[in-house]
Structure formats: C-alpha cells, structure tokens
C-alpha cells in the first residue's frame, strides 16, 4: 500500500523484548523439532507398548496420547512441555486486557464486515491498525499490558502491511508470513475482540448479550410471511371477481329496493345477489387458504433444520454446543471435517497451523468445486463447509453483517420483479392470458347486457303499452342477468383448484411448490439453465476408469460400478493384483475418510475427502476384503485391538501440495516394509521404474520403460479430457532399518524441494480416473426436454473439458455441436459460442463506460445465446445475467436473423419471449433464482437462502424432477384449457338463451339462480374433475406455449361453437315447440299469469344441465381425439365427480322448488328421459365436429397457418415495442 504512513518503530527496549520473545520461540521450536526427530528415529529401534497413538498423526497430536513408558514416555513428556511453552510464548505476546464490563469495542460491525468482504491479509492488518486508535481505556493496573499490546500490534501491522516493492519477497518467506498471520489472528481475538483462543469469551449472559447488541445477532430475521388477510386481498385482485362483486352488490340493491312492486315483500329476492357474493367469498377463501398452508409447509420444512444446526464453541474455557442462531462475535468455533461442518458465520482461522491446513468447500458461494486451503489469518465465510482437517475459528461477523447474511437480506428486501435493476415480468404467462381473456369476456358480456336493455326499451316503450316506470326496473334486472351469465364465475376457482391439485401431486414427485403460479409457469418453460454438481451428477466422486495390467477399463454406463465392469471383462486382472490394489487404497487413506456400502455395492454414507471416498468404494468392491478389515488387520496401520500396540511401526507421509502425493509404510510379515503411494499421475510415474503386467502374479514386476510410461501418460491425458481426476497408485518394498527421513539426491518434489528417498524407485500398479458421475436418469430426461422444445444449458464452475465431458454424456451437447472433422469431444473442438467461460462471457455482454460503470448489452447477448449450451468457470452473477438476457431477448422478432440461424446452424428460435427456469443451490445463486421465471433450489444441498428465493424446491436435487415439473406444468395449462372449453360453451349457450328470451319474453327462460348453480357449483366440480386428469408423456412431445398465442386454440373454438349451436338448437326447440309437443303450458304464461314456476322452463333447465354433463366428457379432449373415453375409468375422481353432479341435479330438479326456481314436484319420467337423451346427443356431436375439423384442416390448413403465423409475429413485435 504505497504512501501509507506507518507508526514509528518501537524503541530499543521494545525491540529487544520482541527479539527476546522471538528468540525464545525459535529455540523452543528447534528443541521441539529435535525431540520429534529423536522420537521418530527411535520407533524402529525400540520395542514399546503404544497406547492410542496413531501413525500419521502430527507431532502435536502424538503428544496428546497417554505416556507409554521408557524413552518414548520421556520424549512425549518433553514434547508436551515444549508444546505448552511454544503456545504460551505465542499467546503471551498479547494479553487479554479487561476494559470493564460493557466497554465499547475498538471495531464496529462494518469494520469486521469489510474484512469478510475483502478477505486479504492486508485487510486484517488495516483492521488491526484502525483498532489500535480506538482501544478503550483499561482498568487500573493493566496499563503496561495494554501498551505492550499496542507496540506489538503496531510492529506486526507494519510487517504485514508492507509496501508493494517487497510484498512478494515477504510472502515467499513462508515461515515468517505464517507466523505473523497467526499472531495477527490471535491479536484480533485477544486484544480487539476480548476473547482468547484457548478459553473463548466468558459464558456470562451479560457479555453475550452485549456482544449481540454491539455486533448483531446471527439469527437473520426470517422472511416475513404474508398474513391471511393479505393473501385474501391478493386473491381478490382478479378482474372476474371484481365484476362479480359489483354484480352481486347491484343485484341485492336493485332486488331489495327499486325492484319491488308496491306492497310486495322481499322474501328471498336477495338470494341471487348474495349467492354471487358467496361464490366470490368461496373463491377468495380457498385461494388464500391454499397459499397460506403452502407458506407454513415451507416453514415446517426448514424449522427442523434450524433446530439441528448446532456447533461447538469455547466459552469460559469449556466446549459448549450451541445452535447457530446463538453464536456471537468473539466466539471460538471448534470445527472438523468428520461432520462436514457448515460454517455459520464469517470467521478468521486461528493458529497454530495444521499440516495441510483446513480444506474448505466454497462452492455454495463461488460455484467453484475446487477445495480451498485455509491457514491462520485467512477468512472463512459463512455457508462454506469444512471438508478436510480441523481447527479453531474466531467469529468476526454474524447475521446480516456476514457475507451470506448480506446476500440473504438482499434477496428478502428485493422486489419480486427487480433484482439489481434487471427487471422481469410480474405475471406468469397463463395469468396474463386469463386476465386478457376475462377482460374480453367482460366487455362482450357488457355489450350483450346493453344490447338486451336497448332492445327491451325500444320494444317496450315504442311498441308496448307498459309504462316506463313499471318495466324499466325489470329490463335492468334482465340486463344484469345477461351480464351475470356472461361472466364465468367458476373460472377463478377452477384455476385455483387446478394449481392446488397439481402442486400436491408434484410434492409426491419431489417438487415442493412454494407459489402456485410456478406450477403452470414451468409448463411454459423454453429454457432450463441447470447446475452440474448434484443436479446432473450424483454429487459423489466415483471411480469410472482404471488403467491396470496394460489394459484400459473405462465404464461408460452410469448404472454399472467400475469394479463390476472390470471383473466382468475377459481381460480382468488376476486376483492377486486386485488384492494389491485393495490393500494399497485401504491402507493409504486417511482415518477420517470412511464409506458405508450395502451388499449391492451402493454407497449408503460417507465422510471425509470425496476423492478418497471414491477410492475406498472401489477397493471395497474390487477385492475380496472390505477396506475396514484390511485397515484393522494390517500391522502398523491398525489402531484396534491387539495390533494397536504395533501402530508405531508404521510410517505416514501426509499429502501436501508441495509433494502432490501421500504414502503409508507398513511392516511386512517376512521382514522389511512396503510403502504404498498414491498421488498425481505425472508425479508418481516419474518416480516409477517398474510396473505390474498381465503375466505378473502380484509380486513379480517388470521394468517400466519410456514407451510404457508414455502409454500411461496418454491414458491419463485421455481421462483428463473426459473431465476426470487422475490418480496413480504405486508401491515399493523396503528393507529393514530403512531411513524414512533420507532425501533423494536426484528426485525433487513438485515445489523443487528434495523428495523422500523411500518414495522413489516405485512399482506402478494402476491409474484411476475419478469423476462425479452422471445420474442414470439424466440423459433420458434431457432427451425429453429437447423433444418438448425446451433448451437445456449447463452452468458450472468446472473447467471447460470437465464441463464438456458431462454435458456430452448428459446429451446437452450433441455431435453437431462439434466442428466437422473432429473426433475428440473436448472444449477446443466445439463450434463458436457453444461453450463459453464466465470471464469471456462477461467481457462480451457488458459494455464498460469511461467512468468505469458497466452496462448490459442485449444485442451482444443475442448473438451468443442461441448457440450457448455450456458455461464453464462461471460465477453466480453469470447466472443472473443469463436469466435476464434470455428473458428480455426479442431476437424472435427479427425474422431475417432467425432465418439465418436456421440456415447456417439449424437453430430454431422460439417464436416468443423465453421463459427461463434456473437451478441453484448456493447462497450467491439466490438473486438469479429470484430473477428467473421459475427458480429451482436444491432441497438437499441447497442453502436456506437459495430455498427462500426459489419458487420450487427439488427435494431430491435431481434434474429428472425438473422434467416432471415441466410435465405437470403443461398439464395445468391443459387442464385450464379443458375447463375453459367446458365453461365458455356454457356461457355462450346461456348468454344467447338469455338474450333471445329477453327479446321475445323480456325474461330469460333460465333463472339467475339456475345459471349460478351451473356456473359455480357444477363448474367448480368440473374444474376439479378436469384438473385431476394425470399428465401424459404426450404433453412433452409438443412445443411450449408462447406468450402471444391465445389460450383458446382453433380446435377449442370449433368444439365450443359446435356444441353451443347444438345446445341452442335443443333449447330453442323446447322453448318454442315444447308446449305443443309435450303438452305443458308455455313457461312465460305460467310465470307471468299464474305466478308459478313452470314445467316448461324446468325442462329447459334440466336438458341444459345434462348437455353440460355429457359435454364434460368431451372437454377432456383438446386436439380432436375421437375416443373421448380414453383413460376415463382410471381417473376415479373424475368419475366420482361426474356421478355426484348428476345426483345433485336430480335432487335440485325434484326437490329444489322455489329456491331453485323449478316446478313443484319436479319433472315426469318421460321428460327426464328426453333430458338425458338430449344430453347424450353431445357425444355424437363431438364426433361430427372432429370430422369437420379434419376436412377443413386438410383443405384450408396451410392458408390459415400462414395467416396465423404472420399475425403472431406482428403481435409479438407490438408487444416488444411496448415493453
């Protein structure tokens, strides 16, 4: 940091104190190293009785073992003393100074949050420097300690925050750098945050509450749930419901006031208006209740997670288990890889450093699957996971001040339609269409009502004898009835029931739907942007290839284990060689890596390093003996039973990045040792001079010449191009008395240091290729997506070749995506823009202005996305950009560009806006999940923040479940179409009947209460019946429904108009010819003169209802299918509702009386027979309509198709211009 002003150098006395402390520390460290060397040299010379000491533990771990007597006891006692002394010297540099209860801290939550955000050692130095200026006064008697801390920190800050000129040299001095960072982390804990690495904070409630008050709580306020009243208010924001409310209120006012004649009492005159309002109330309550229950279902799903999230903290010198929400700044966390601890807050790693450091998985924040090593002074972020190692962490930021908390707050506070200024659509495609349809129906109904009022007024006033004041109210009531008939009262309830039914079924198919709209939106999806790890793959590293005995075994079937594949081939290695492989892997893996395998070879549970888990699974199924049995029965490796006393005879060389290998030597029964090695293929092969071949018995070896070595390296390169991680396995037999500490004169480690002599002159055994395998069901699911017109794009943090390998296996990439004339399926052979790395993608789609601000370039994005199938090395922000760019693209309106893409690359652009589904599991994925039309979060691997932002949660983290969601979504759309086909047929017939009746008799033959029965009760049951139709695979053989396409298809229009004509013909036949044929009095005469409900109009009502009941079976078919009964008996709910509705109709006609406006005593058996016969006539009518449609389609289909396509493109252009 050039230009920074450092504090003055400490005076001579202070310098001498620092120098003395450092000298003491160096002396102690040197003595400790000397004793450790003496101890290890004595292991092979002395016959000792060991306790629980394990080979492979560090010296720090060994000295914690119980003393066992003799020289070893002396050494271990000395080591314990030196360990304590060294720790005391490091910790004594800083003293926890008591500033009094509730004294202010020297840093603010923002300061600590900035450290988490920047995550550099210099940021830590700057924080310490700033804190020095704000340290509160200490209690009397501690001034000297506080001043000493100031001096030490100032000197440390100056050394860490060194200038740009010599920072590189300082970093190269790794011992000094690591030591300084350990001191800096301890200074932050002890001096600044008033905690101690060994004791933590106090366990007093006042201290904990004060820290919570100062730095915030770790319990981020959960997303506020919508109240039931708010959900009711949202449900009533529907055009149809608003119209019904207005009609109901007007109806009650008119009927109870000006509609009454002089001296007439109201009686049940309010019933029709009240029934309309009751219908609205039912719809609102049902809709709000479903949404309310969905909210709490999600809360119940996550509450158990909160209650089980506990961590070990040190408070008052004791280890305590607390839930994540109770952790405060200054707490010391004890973490280890055995339980794959998820970090609950931002932390700083404390010392002393452990061998290999903490291995962290930061994929939830970065999307990168590579493990990150953390050493003292490094920042560990909340939401990341400890995969390997153990250590202590100092909590520095909690809740909304942590990195994950900031993202969570950003997700909760962002509006539903805007994330970072990237605006999207506020409504789903279906609801946009339904709202537009409802408005058109409302306008048509209003026009029909005004027409009725106008005609009746002309007829009554101009040609009639009635006084206007006597009949005007009656004409208005008739007009309101016509309008009420036109409005589909059952539509909102039908939509709600269809979505609720589908969401409950989707739950059984591993899709937890949080918002009902997401059901049908997924049915309109045109693009799925999916993660790789855990979604396309099983998220379990698995051995998939092995080169052994000169033979390459590559298993391409995801359903077959590599071990089974190897043993099933004719070139399988002999049993002795397989036994060598099993022993090598079982012995030379860490104790913390375990795997449980069922008899079928399936991994049931595992812990530790994922790569070692894959090797252990291979070893357990490849050889005759389980890896645990090998470990427990191998002298020098076993720490169980009688063999545990010989554990010290073994020797472990841990994996380090400098060596890129790991080894474990165990004594042999016949004398000497065998050292088993595994590591990077290029490293181990350079150290091998022999190898096993098919002719070998397992102990005999042959020389490994350059040609053989090149063959193995070529196979390794082949594995790498397929996206596999390669590990070489080797061993060497050593004589008694071998010097394990001897260094090689000719072989160097990967970092240039001298290699261990015992790890040279090895015998090559096998090369293993490990990958995260594809889920077996994924290729078939992706094929279904392409068949359904849904593009699949993979977004991953992996390297390009790894991404290409998985994408090709999954079927996302096809042969035509690769350049002609290329055979290898690697990234460099892909056509332009098919694969892009995140940094290149960002550079191309964002314009950087002179002031440094960036702006999204939609035109540049439109040149890329039609080709893009894989994005490698991507960041979560790339997902957000991808979702926004796809959703806002209007490329489909550029006909010339679409034609060119089709001609040059055979790419068809969907003729409407893209509907984007996005998967995510990490915290940083939340904004993209919120921005996409449908966000899918992983139920198993997903973070809580990702689940909160998503619309649907995949309970099994499986891509195939997304395809199931698409199928159910399309089924919702089809169910609504079926109901609309049924409902609008009713409305067309009823409106025309009401209009004709008003023209002829100034009154509709169908009473308003009868139409309400048809529109509400019958239609509600019909909607549930039609919604219960299960989805079929044929739904995925059609293209997605675009936004501009009408929800009512051409076939639906033919069906509705055809049945409406038939129904109107029957009704008018009964209305005008019925009295003369069946001998009953005309209904108009009975109701006007006799003031009774007529048999005539009751017969019309009954026939009308039965035609709807039979037409309900026709409505199951949308595309002109001739067999309308297909699968009807399998849908028990549909059959039950149909029979129940028929029974209710019988009750209404025979017993409804005045309430249902039917004749007393109902209808005779003859009229019942005619009513049912007229209803059954709907079935052959449907067949006639289907035949006519086929004839018209063949005759005029091409003409109408071209006209329709032209109209849609014109509409799309107007929509895009308006947007």
What does this protein look like?
It comes from Cyclostephanos tholiformis. It is an enzyme of class 7 (translocase). With 1219 residues, the chain is α+β, with helices and mostly antiparallel strands. 51% of the residues lie in helices and 13% in strands. Strand 10 and strand 11 (422-423) form a beta hairpin. The radius of gyration is 39 Å and the shape is elongated. Mean pLDDT is 78; it is low at 1-92, 163-172, 415-425 and 1207-1219.
Question: What is the β-strand count?
Answer: 34
User: Alpha-carbon distance between the termini?
Assistant: 48 Å
- % residues in beta strands: 5-15%
Indicate the radius of gyration in whole angstroms: 39 Å
Query: Which shape, going by the Cα principal axes?
Result: elongated
Name the helicity range. Answer: 40-55%
Q: Are there runs of 5+ residues with pLDDT below 50, and where? A: 1-92, 163-172, 415-425, 1207-1219
The averaged pLDDT comes out at: 78
Count helical runs.
Answer: 40
In terms of structural class, how would the helical and strand content be classed?
alpha+beta
The biggest beta sheet is recorded as:
9 strands, mixed
Domain Cation-transporting P-type ATPase N-terminal: 193-250
Main location: membrane
Domain Cation-transporting P-type ATPase C-terminal: 1004-1186
Catalytic activity: Ca(2+)(in) + ATP + H2O = Ca(2+)(out) + ADP + phosphate + H(+)
